[in-house]
Amino acid sequence: MRLKAWRLLVVVLAIGLVGPALVAVPSQAGGVRAGPAVITQWNTIAGRTIYTENATPVPVGSLYFGFVSLAVYDAVVAIEGRYQPYLKQPKVRGKASSEAAAATAAYEVLRYYFPASAAQLATDYAASLGGIPDGRSKVRGTEVGRHAAATLIQARLNDGRGANIQLTVTPAPGVWRPTPDANAAMLAPWLGFVVPLALRSPTQFRLPGPDPITSKAYARDFAEVKTMGALVGSARTPAQTETAVFWNANALLQYEAALRSQVTARGMDIVDSARAFALLSTSVADALIACWRAKYDYAYWRPITAVRLAGTDGNPATEADATWSSLLQTPPYPDYVSGHASATGAATGTFSYLFGARSLDLDVPALVSTASRHFDSAAALDAETMNARIWLGFHFRKAMTDANRLGHRTAAWTIGHEFRPRH
């Protein structure tokens, strides 16, 4: 059940929508609307807190990026208007600083969920507020931010995070089992059962499912990943290997950083910047919730298992190689569908809405290699990331394409049902 009432809207999705003009915009809070600096600053702090300081697993961290972005968005629009809040907020009376509200909302959410980082967060918060003139507007802004954070935290109580859920399946041809070398149990199986942020349920979008292991389509995908994703004897070119390694990183951090650059370069104000991060973080979090549920429900084996045990699959077109390994160590969860492709589809769907599918002008920073990568279109970003995970030896092609569609559908739903303009 959703945590707040749904507004049923019929929306025509303007995929070619361009970003806001580079002009100063009058603020309903008084004066001129601030720029994106406080939004990008606390987004950076969120990434450091969630991943660097607290080592949160990548897919799980998407939830907390979502929580921060939602509270910040609600705090800003409670003051500035223009868009509907995610959760109901009280009317703000008198002038209030939306910058103080945004900083406070982010700070309160992060310190609640990550108490081990409280000291560093307090230092960040003091520095953030130190740049805002003292006065009633600042005080009122902090009150708005605290309320937005408290409302979000209350709404997410008992949402399924950390539930005692384990994936227990009987090993058989086509069925997932822990993969070498770690042979670890499925990471965070509970994620697929968490209450989504925007979707109605983790299973809202029906997936076609993986190919039967006796099919020609499976044999085709098997041959591709076996040839292109091997650690030894692969047909990858050096450039393809470099691409694969580039995308063996925390894609969530990469896409959040790319959006920080975009809202700054395009001169988006504090309202549109807060909304952009809410759209991205919500879409990615829900795409990963839906993805993790599919991984749990289908429990499909990884290429490393499939290649080594091909003699058991009943498919005459596949050939076993008992020593085959993926380029890098396979992550500890099933193949179908891909988490990376789900998150990427949600991100490219969001970027397409915000900046135009064929005019992204997007730089994605490197986290594990030396140079960033530039993309002018959503299609190019989707294609490269899907290829990269196959070149890593992690996924069959169908797990990539179905996941990418899942991400796009999740983004479209979020755009159509949340963060809408006020009427």
Question: What does the model show?
Answer:
Helices cover about 50% and strands about 0% of the residues. It contains 13 helices and two strands. Strands 1-2 form a two-stranded antiparallel ribbon. The longest helix has 29 residues, at about 270-300.
Outline of the structure:
By secondary structure, the chain is mainly α. Helices cover 50% and strands 1% of the residues.
Q: Layout of helices and strands, plus pairs?
A:
Blueprint: H1 37-53, H2 58-80, H3 98-113, H4 118-130, H5 136-155, H6 216-228, H7 238-246, H8 251-265, H9 270-298, H10 303-308, H11 339-355, E1 362-364, E2 373-375, H12 378-391, H13 397-417
Q: Output the radius of gyration.
A: 22 Å
Largest sheet: 2 strands, antiparallel
The secondary-structure element order is HHHHHHHHHHHEEHH
As residue ranges, the low-confidence spans are 1-25
Strand content: under 5%
Distance separating the two termini: 26 Å
Structural class: mainly alpha
- Average predicted confidence as pLDDT: 93
Number-wise, the strands total 2
Question: Treating each run of at least 4 consecutive H or I residues as one helix, how many helices?
Answer: 13
Form type: elongated
**Spatial sequence of strands, sheet with the most strands:** 1-2
Tell me roughly what share of residues is in helical segments.
40-55%
What tags apply to this protein structure?
two-stranded antiparallel ribbon; 2 strands; single chain; about 425 residues; 13 helices; mainly alpha
